[in-house]
Each structure stands twice: as structure tokens, then as C-alpha cells.
Write a structure and sequence with these properties.
13 strands, about 210 residues, four-stranded mixed beta sheet, 3 helices
Amino acid sequence: MSEVKIVAQLRTEFGKGAARRIRRSDQVPAVVYGHGADPKHVSVPGHELLLALRTANVLISLDIDGKSELVIPKAVQRDPLKGFLEHVDLLSVKRGEKVTVEIPVSTEGELAPGGNLLEFVLNTLPVEAEATHIPEGFTVDVEGLEAGASILAKDIVLPKGTTLAVDEDAVVIQVVAAQAEVVEETEEEGEAEEAAPAEEAAAEEA
């Protein structure tokens, strides 16, 4: 994974008012923490950070007062309506250090004919990886899978140096029969229709 270089500035003002002023200047309030050091409160260029965060678990070389520090995003707060960045927590990491991260999982291929559905039990796979070699994502081949088939964590091929941070038998993806849901809904509707006349009769007798 390549590094994204961003210049940040230390913050001396805090609180909601200060945060709003920072965002009005196209900056994003952020906190850098890790390795037992005191947290650093910084402001980061909003547009550059937004572009960087398009890559999951992006490795950022953050320049703070002329000193470079490697960080990865750990918590991102966005405005629920407009989607702009409100605040970011950045974890300080070192080369060679192992970190636990959530890697996005996607699929390729077509399921076996029959109208079955693909269900993601885990949208991301927790793994432990070297901080400067974090996988960007895992792609799982579901070609020809039938209802009842499952992809377990241990079935996903991991790059060298990366290990699972979840039970190897954890279900990541499963194939479910679409008809089962339709039948279940039909049975529930039938039971409701049978119950309705009985309730009406009871009301009349009362």
C-alpha cells in the first residue's frame, strides 16, 4: 500500500465553536493517538483527507510541524445529512508493527440459477497485518454457488504476513434461497387470515 502525504497543523483551540471555524476553512479536526503518547490535536486539509479516505485503511504520512508520522484512520465522523467530514481519529503506527484492521469484502461471479440471494454476514474481515502492507480488500469468487453454500473466513486467501483476527470458521458470506422467504411470508399471512374470523366471532359472542 502506497503512502499518502498530508501536511497537518497542531490545534490550540478546542470545542464546538473552534471545530466549526476549522471546518469553515476547509480543514477537518483530527486527533492522532497511539504508542502511549499524549494525543495530538491537529487540523487536516479536508479535500486531501477526503480523497485519501476513499481507500480503506489508507496509510497516511502526516507532516506535523516538519516531523513525519505514519497514521491510519480508525474512526471517521461524517455529517449524517451532507456527508462532509466532521472529525477523524488517526492511529499512529510504525513500520513493521502489526495492527488489527477491518478489510472490505466484495464478490465476483454469478450464483447458480434459481433466484438465490447472496447474504453478507460480515461486510468486512478483521485481520492482523503489517501497518505498511494492509490489504485494500478481498474479492471472493461466488461463481456457481447454490443455496446453502457458505464462504468461511478460512476460505479467503490472505496475503503473506496477514492473519485472521476472527474465528476461522466464522461465516463471511452465505447463499440463501429466495423462495424460503416467500413461503414463510405466505404462511404468516395465512395464519393471520385464519385468526381474524376467530377474533371477530369472539367479539360478536361477547
